[in-house]
Every structure is written in structure tokens, then in C-alpha cells.
Structure prediction request, 365 residues.
Amino acid sequence: MNRQELHAQYGPKLVCPLPGPKAKAAVAADSRLISPSYTRSYPLVAKSGRGIRVTDVDGNEFLDFAAGIAVNSTGHCHPEVVAAIQKQAAELLHISGTDFYNEHLTNLAERLSAVAPMPGPHRFFYGNSGAETIECALKLARYHTGRQQVISFFGAFHGRTMGALSLTGSKPQQKRRFSPLVPGVTHVRYPYTYRGCTGGAEEQEAFSLACARYIEEKLFKTVLPPEEVAAIFIEPIQGEGGYVVAPDNFMRELRAICDRHGILLVVDEVQCGAGRTGKWWAVEHSGVEPDMVCIAKGIASGMPLGICMTRAESWTGFPAHTHRPSAETLFPLRPRWPRWTSWNARASPTRPAWASSCSSGCAAG
Ligand SMILES: Cc1ncc(COP(=O)(O)O)c(C=O)c1O
Prediction:
């Protein structure tokens, strides 16, 4: 197949100039009715999706290399995910997992425990979003350690609720006119070796190590007593910060600093976790074992779910009523994870993979 043929079969298919008439109308209605704070970059008005393909309201087809915003980890409308949602919706639409018990919560906890990046036993907190898992980690870290201060990084994005926003270090417009935020957050430099130094591998290693050492050698010796620091929050790969990978030696040094001072290491895997880097969790590439992992987005491939995965010993106290999500997501679980790679690879524009792979409608591959 040559390039033109490949493009004709698998490329985007445009039926009108963009945005089309229906998309224009939807954008106009949106600008009248919806919060102007949303961050729309271009006028895609999505109607349906299958695998990597998204079709807009005018019938234009696009390839979604962003998986939504790193959410549809198994592709759009993976048939196993859709079937699980349909089954659960018919069985039980809602029960608050914070007020009552539900087997799905423990089933998923056990399966996540088996792939956790730190040794067990583990304990889990469920919420609806990434920001909620960050709020949980922040409150839990303070409660467990009895300390008030936390460290996070310039370039970090941890969400927009007040606690998560306080940790975020990305754009001034995210914080402008919202102060006072949660006090006790110190931002430090992320080891962005590409921007931070011009030399080769050796210089980059020294630079990233220096970024970690700054915490102990400068901050802790001048303005921030280490025994008051509850946690260090880090994205092992900064997302909004520019897809920047924290070097292994930096992550190891961070772990060592935390160990020396009784500080919890919290990794925000909301965007980089759930299989996106070839391992379950991005932090695993460095071999570092965190104390808490904040999970959302791709873990539920389109359903709203946030999870704070912790070492069980991090829950000193934290009795009933201390913290709970605003409403409890009841994510319908399947006995196995959907197979995202095979489904995405085989989803063709003309014939969805599940149509041919299995008569019962599952993408068994
Ligand atoms: C690394 C990271 N943490 C936290 C969040 C907040 O997640 P949510 O938008 O689900 O609240 C995001 C969202 O983009 C994120 O990328």
C-alpha cells in the first residue's frame, strides 16, 4: 500500500471545511451557555468515537492521538468497556461506596494491589477525578505525618480544586484572583535537563541531581524545616509541563531525601500512569517505590474515576468523616482488563474490530 492508499484507508476523512455548519452552531451555543473558563484549542464538536477515530457532528472523521486528554486508554468506546457499563447500568446505577459496601471497590483494590509500584499491604481511596485523588493525598499526608508543609514542582499540574491548585505550578492564570490558596506549599525546580543545561549526558545527570540536592542543601538549611514537611508531590513525567521525564537519578535522590526526613513521596500518575509508558506506572521506570500513587484518567478509559493508592501504614487515624469523595463512582469492573493495543490496532475506519473478532461482541485478542 503506498502513502496515498494508506491515507485514503486510514487517514482522517473530511466531508466539509472545518468547522462545519453543525459544529459552528454548537460552538456558538457553547460560547453563550458554557463557562468561558474551559480551555478549548480548536472547534472539534465530537459526536461518536471508535478506537482511535472520532467523528464530529458534521460527519468529519479524525484520528485522536491524544486519547481524549489521555483518558481513553483503550480507545474510544472499547466494546468491553461499553458492555461493562451497560451491564452495570442495568444492574445497579448508584450506591454510595462511602456509606455502604460494594464488592467492586475491593475487587479493583485487590487487582491494583497486584500491580502496585510499592510493596503492600495497600489501602485505596476512590473518588471521581484526578484532583480528588490529589486532595486525598494532601489531606492524608498532613494527617498521617502531623506536618503542614509540602513540596511540589514548577511546571507541575495537579488539578484545579483548591488543594490541588495550590500544588500546581504551571500557569499564573490558573491561580490569578483565587488566593488565598492552601498555605504551606513550596515549589522547586523540576529536573528539565533539556532546558536546564546544554551539555551531554554527564552534565545532565549532574544537573538533575543538583535539582534534588537543592531541596536538602538549600531549602532545608534556610527556610523550610524538614521535620515540618509532610510530602513531596511529583509527576514522574510532567504532562502540562511539556512531557518532561524526571531522570532516574533524580527520582532516586528524591526517595532518599524523603527517607532521611520521614517525608512521604507522592507520585501523581493521573496523566502518565495506567499503562501509558509501557509499564503500569511511570515511576516504575526509575525503580523508585513511592508512598502514594494518585491515579485517574486512563484507569477507567472514559469513566470518571480517581484512585489514591497508598501503603496501608500511611493511614494513621483518618477515622470516619475525616475525608470522603463528593459522590462515589461505581465503576463497573470486568474480570480482566480490556486489551487496548489489539483493539486500537485493529479498529479500521470501515469495519470495527469487534465486528469480526468475536460473535459475542468482545474484542478477544
Ligand atoms: C498530572 C495531573 N494531575 C492531576 C490532574 C487533575 O485531574 P482531573 O482533571 O481529573 O481533576 C491532571 C489533569 O489533567 C493531570 O494531568
